[in-house]
């Protein structure tokens, strides 16, 4: 479903971010709120040959996988007025053209008591996408992330910033998938640093 079909006639829209949007939205918004959506789990199963990788060594970034008993924490941004069109135009290039993501509307539950859910737009990469890489062990994903970089920067930065967000903004949430990949990637990055030092010393 295309964003313009979802948002026709709307003067306000919530956009849910669960990957790089949580620390780098890069569009103007009225307010933001930490919270979660239900029925999806976050996984590093999508390939990236632009922002965090290339055609030879695609990076790994997150997408959402349907799972009835799961929830995914992130940040929702409310855009209003002209911000609606501006943000969707920007995100269409960032997430759809360069990332291969599609859009859905989901219920977003803001953190805190007595906070009613709101409908939010979310970008999801599905398994029929050409860039979709699918599951792998935390060790294999961590190695891939440790060695890849793209036009936006190193894949490792993407991983570490997401892990930092979860620790700082959602300290009560245990994201085993994320943190096990972080551990594997840092181990690999440390080994690469040592290897580079030894080679330089020869």
**Helical content (DSSP H or I, runs of 4+):** 25-40%
- Low-pLDDT runs: 194-202
Radius of gyration from CA coordinates: 17 Å
Which class of secondary structure composition applies to the elements? alpha+beta
Instruction: Output the helix-strand order.
Output: HEEEHEEHHH
Count of alpha/pi helices: 5
Query: Would you give the CATH topology?
Result: Hypothetical upf0131 protein ytfp
The CATH class turns out to be Alpha Beta
The CATH homology group name: Gamma-glutamyl cyclotransferase-like
* Major β-sheet profile: 5 strands, mixed, barrel
Oligomer state equals: single chain
Taking all residues together, what is the mean pLDDT? 90
Task: Examine the secondary-structure arrangement and name the CATH architecture.
Answer: Roll
Strand order of the largest sheet: 1-3-2-4-5
- Write down how many β-strands occur, each being a DSSP E stretch of 2 or more residues: 5
How many discrete domains?
1
Distance between the termini: 56 Å
Which range does the strand content fall in?
25-35%
Could you say which overall geometry the principal axes of the C-alpha atoms support? globular
């Amino acid at each position: 479903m295309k964003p313009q079909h979802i948002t026709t006639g709307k003067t306000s829209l919530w956009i849910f971010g669960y990957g790089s949007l949580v620390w780098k939205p890069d569009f103007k918004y009225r307010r933001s709120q930490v919270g979660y959506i239900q029925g999806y789990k976050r996984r590093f199963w999508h390939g990236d040959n632009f922002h965090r990788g290339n055609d030879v060594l695609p990076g790994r970034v997150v997408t959402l996988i349907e799972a009835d008993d799961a929830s995914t924490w992130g940040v929702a941004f409310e855009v209003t007025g002209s911000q609606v069109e501006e943000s969707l135009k920007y995100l269409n290039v960032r997430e759809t053209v360069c990332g291969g993501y599609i859009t859905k509307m989901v219920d977003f539950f803001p953190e805190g008591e007595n906070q009613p859910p709101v409908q939010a737009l979310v970008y999801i990469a599905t398994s029929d996408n050409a860039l979709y890489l699918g599951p792998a062990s935390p060790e294999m994903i961590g190695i891939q992330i440790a060695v890849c970089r793209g036009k936006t920067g190193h894949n490792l930065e993407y991983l570490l910033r997401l892990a930092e967000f979860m620790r700082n903004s959602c300290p009560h949430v245990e994201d085993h998938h994320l943190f096990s990949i972080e551990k594997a990637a840092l181990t690999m990055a440390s080994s690469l640093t040592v290897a580079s030092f030894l080679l330089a010393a020869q």
